[in-house]
Structure formats: C-alpha cells, structure tokens
C-alpha cells in the first residue's frame, strides 16, 4: 500500500491546518490508521492520533481537544484537522495504515511560528 500525505505548511500560532493521506487501495473500518510526527532535532517519531479497529479515535494528550482525526472510506483517505496550533506542533507528520503490514506516507512538514 502506498500512502500520499499532503496539507502541511507554515502557519502562525493559533492557526489551523488540515492534513490528508490518501491510500492506493481501499481502506476499511478494520484497518487501524493514524498519524505520528517527528519534531526538529528529535530522534524518534511520536504518536499523534489514530483510528483503531472499530472506529474509535485515540489522541496523544498533547493534542487532545485540538486535533481531530477522521477518514473517508469512499476516497481511501484519512485526515487530521489541526486547530489551535502552537510551536510545539512543528514537525514532519507521517500517516500510517495497518493492513497485513504497516505502511507509511512520505511525511508532510508543519511549521508553526510564534
């Protein structure tokens, strides 16, 4: 499965962005999917949000109440609506999809200035 992420950009603190991730094959409600991010100078990606099997959305504490994850099975897509962005949200955002293995998108850069 190939994933194409888009929607990153540069915004000021308090702004919003909507990330998209389109899969090359059909996604279903049993396929966990979500987003991780890697901040500048950080060695590891950190969990941001996911939709687990059955459709429940799970969020990192740092984004709870500000970010919303969703999916559109008809478009083979998932989205991450990010509101109330702050400089701490700066990083490269990666989408993933779990089928028989984990597939990752190429990453999209989000830069939030204070």
Short overview:
The protein has strands at residues 3-6, 9-12, 17-23, 33-38, 46-51, 57-59, 67-72, 77-82, 91-98, 102-104, 108-113. It is mainly beta.
What does this structure look like?
The chain has 114 residues and is mainly beta. Helices cover 0% and strands 52% of the residues. The protein contains no helices and eleven strands. Strands 2, 4, 5, 6, 9, 10 and 11 form a seven-stranded mixed beta sheet that branches. The chain has a four-stranded antiparallel beta sheet with strand order 1-3-8-7, with no helix packed on it. A hairpin with a 7-residue loop joins strand 4 (33-38) and strand 5 (46-51). The protein is globular. The model has no long low-confidence stretch (mean pLDDT 95).
Key traits:
7-stranded mixed β-sheet; 4-stranded antiparallel β-sheet; mainly beta; 114 residues; 0% helix
Secondary-structure blueprint:
Blueprint (H helix, E strand, L loop, with lengths): L2 E4 L2 E4 L4 E7 L9 E6 L7 E6 L5 E3 L7 E6 L4 E6 L8 E8 L3 E3 L3 E6 L1
Parallel strand pairs: 2-11
Antiparallel strand pairs: 1-3, 3-8, 4-5, 4-9, 5-6, 7-8, 9-10, 9-11
